[in-house]
Design brief:
There is one protein chain. This protein has 254 residues and is mainly alpha-helical. 59% of the residues lie in helices and 2% in strands. It contains 13 helices and two strands; from the N terminus they run ααααααααβαβαααα. The protein has a two-stranded parallel sheet. Helix 9 links the parallel strand 1 and strand 2.
Length: 254
């Protein structure tokens, strides 16, 4: 994926495939000809080729849908916005850095795509300060493709609000290598210490009940394993890369 500038994170399915319902489904389908044929036909190169085709198609559609968007009102605009959000969300994972910056500029004038525009620019440039102010959801949306690209990121300015602090913690929880200003009080924040350093006995006796419970679930370990847990699939339908591939095969859009 990386050789084609794709930011698709590859989830760890080692635990999911051991679950009883998954094993029973595989056992039921394995004797069928179409299942074996499709399993043999699925290769890393095939997935990359599908993603590249989906990228080209999505970029064309997004460009077309952005035309005259400023002139649309009422129902026509309301009908167009979900399509733009869907395409922008996919291209955050599929477009190369140069194209992503171009789409960030093209969408920043559309109020309904404010979040997507900022996430696009942050993912393309690695500069995440303008995403941190949008809170934890925006930070998670940006950190996943950055993890997929195996890139680091940079924070400029001051971490002077709880929203920025929590957003920064999201990037650290995901295992992103973040370059911070010298005045960021990482040692004074219980949340940042937990995200950056892992868990010690003091974390399990901390003053914040939510962080205390999280520390107990993590277990004593001086190196954090948050990223390892986040990259593990919760179920077989969670993987973003699979969703993107299915869009190419099953999308009904013209």
């Amino acid at each position: 994926f990386g050789s084609e500038s794709l930011r698709l994170p590859v989830r760890d399915y080692s635990h999911v495939v051991r679950e009883r319902d998954v094993l029973e489904r595989i056992r039921r389908l394995a004797p069928t000809h179409w299942f074996r044929q499709r399993a043999r036909a699925t290769t890393p190169k095939g997935l990359v080729d599908l993603a590249v085709k989906l990228r080209a198609r999505s970029q064309t559609e997004l460009g077309n849908f952005l035309e005259h968007i400023s002139e649309l009102r009422g129902y026509q605009r309301k009908r167009r916005i979900p399509k733009l959000r869907h395409l922008a969300g996919m291209l955050i994972y599929l477009a190369d850095d140069r194209s992503l910056q171009e789409f960030a500029s093209a969408t920043e004038g559309v109020p309904e795509l404010h979040l997507h525009s900022r996430v696009m620019r942050a993912v393309a440039t690695g500069k995440i300060a303008k995403v941190l102010v949008l809170g934890t959801n925006a930070s998670q949306a940006a950190s996943q493709p950055i993890v997929g690209a195996r890139k680091g990121c940079l924070v400029s300015g001051h971490i002077d609000s709880s929203e920025k602090l929590q957003g920064l913690a999201i990037f650290l929880f995901n295992g992103v290598d973040v370059t911070l200003p010298a005045d960021v009080p990482t040692d004074q924040s219980e949340l940042l210490r937990l995200a950056r350093d892992g868990v010690d006995a003091a974390s399990m006796r901390g003053g914040d009940p939510y962080l205390r419970e999280l520390a107990c679930l993590h277990g004593l370990q001086r190196t954090p394993r948050h990223a390892e847990m986040l990259i593990s699939a919760f179920d077989e339908d969670e993987e973003l890369a699979m969703d993107a591939v299915e869009q190419l095969q099953e999308s009904a859009s013209p």
